[in-house]
Design goal:
mainly alpha; 81% helix; 9 helices; 236 residues
């Protein structure tokens, strides 16, 4: 059945799979840790005016969005040109299952085995210093590009899954709109939080408290979704 009039190949990939993986990335505790650091950095701009908060927040978001999109497009192009798309598709299916189990592990036994599926706490002071030095929307944009290097190793599981799926089933032209959509889902919490800060509905203290209270639940949700996506690869 064709979905929303999309070409048959795109409907085979299914928007719900892309959406599901994007939501896993969006609620990933790694991503939320970055959001909280970003919130702290944005609060510095309040003395310079709410407009600066808004512009800097969206500059940061645009940088993350572009960096993820271009990295994804580059990897899909490489996989298709090299002929590795099919085997990579299976590899990321297995990776999704592993990432799913590791997140479930953090729900049951947080930090067990000496690690958690989050940005290492030792990296966070450097990220905080980077964001607190941001003095303009241009600086926020550059910081967003640099933060991608911190965040991608931790949040890359769902994205690699999607890239493997798209490179295996679609042409590069068909891939572009789905990558644009996926990354919009991924940055949607950033957009929401920046708007909430601008209108004064969010505080860093409440955000941190919410994250700490729901950390294990977030790991469980992300784990179950990734496990389901990984199994889906091998059943389809």
């Amino acid at each position: 059945m064709n979905v929303c009039g999309l070409p048959h190949t795109i409907s085979e990939v299914s928007l719900w799979v892309i959406t599901c993986a994007g939501l896993v990335d969006a609620i990933n505790p790694c991503a939320i840790a970055v959001l909280l650091i970003l919130l702290g950095g944005l609060l510095v701009f309040k003395e310079q005016g709410k407009r600066r908060v808004l512009l800097s927040g969206f500059s940061f978001i645009i940088a993350l969005y572009l960096a993820y999109f271009l990295l994804g497009l580059g990897l899909v192009s490489f996989l298709q040109l090299s002929g590795l798309a099919t085997i990579f598709h299976r590899i990321v299916g297995a990776l999704a299952i592993v990432v799913g189990f590791l997140n479930i592990k953090d729900f049951i036994w947080y930090g067990g085995g000496g690690f958690a599926m989050e940005i290492p706490r030792s990296w966070r002071p450097q990220m905080q210093k980077l964001l607190l030095r941001v003095g303009s929307p241009v600086g926020a944009f550059l910081a967003g590009l640099l933060v991608t290097a911190f965040e991608l190793p931790c949040t890359g599981g769902p994205y690699l899954f999607v890239l493997g799926l798209l490179s295996h089933r679609l042409s590069i032209v068909e891939t572009v709109p789905l990558l644009l959509y996926y990354n919009l889902v991924f940055v949607s919490p950033l957009i929401l939080l920046t708007i909430l800060i601008y209108f004064g509905y969010a505080s860093i203290e409440r955000a941190i408290d919410w994250k700490e209270r729901n950390l294990r639940l977030l790991h469980l949700i992300a784990g179950l979704l990734m496990l389901g996506l990984g199994v889906w690869v091998f059943l389809n």
